[in-house]
């Protein structure tokens, strides 16, 4: 993949599980939106016992990305380009 191509889901590397903040950074959504997507069943996640924290498996995030058709950002730390 060259730097001008949009990466495929299979090109991305994630840790085996991610917290809400990590998922929101990857998807460029707010934490609250990610939590809502989890509650509504759009993103599969597990609730940690005795807490209100979710964990999303890498495979479940990949499945969501493939099914959603959302644009994939190669580097979530980079700002998005303004649209004209």
Characterization of the model:
This protein is α+β, with helices and mostly antiparallel strands and 84 residues long. It has a domain at 15-68: Multidrug-efflux Transporter Regulator, Chain: A, Domain 2 (Orthogonal Bundle), CATH 1.10.1660. Helices cover 33% and strands 10% of the residues. The chain has helices spanning 20-27, 31-39, 58-68, and strands at residues 17-18, 46-47, 54-57. It has a 3-stranded antiparallel sheet with strand order 1-3-2. Helix 1 (20-27) packs across helix 2 (31-39). The protein starts with 16 loop residues before the first strand and ends in a 16-residue tail after the last helix.
Report strand %.
5-15%
Task: Average the pLDDT over all residues and give the rounded result.
Answer: 81
Q: Write the CATH fold name of the domain at 15-68.
A: Multidrug-efflux Transporter Regulator, Chain: A, Domain 2
Quaternary arrangement of the chains shown?
single chain
Classification by helices and strands: alpha+beta
| Measured distance between first and last alpha carbons | 26 Å
C-alpha geometry: globular
What is the CATH architecture descriptor of the domain at 15-68? Answer: Orthogonal Bundle
- The helix content, as a percent range, equals 25-40%
Order of helices and strands: EHHEEH
Alpha-carbon Rg, integer: 13 Å
Number of helices: 3
Specify the biggest β-sheet: 3 strands, antiparallel
Return the CATH class of the domain at 15-68.
Answer: Mainly Alpha
Spatial ordering of strands, largest sheet: 1-3-2
């Amino acid at each position: 993949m060259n730097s001008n191509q949009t990466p495929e889901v299979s090109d991305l590397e994630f840790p085996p599980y991610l917290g809400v903040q990590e998922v929101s950074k990857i998807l460029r959504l707010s934490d609250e939106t990610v939590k809502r997507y989890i509650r509504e069943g759009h993103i599969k996640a597990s609730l940690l016992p005795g807490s209100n924290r979710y964990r999303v498996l890498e495979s479940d995030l990949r499945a969501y990305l493939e099914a959603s058709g959302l644009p994939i950002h190669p580097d979530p730390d980079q700002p998005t380009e303004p649209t004209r």
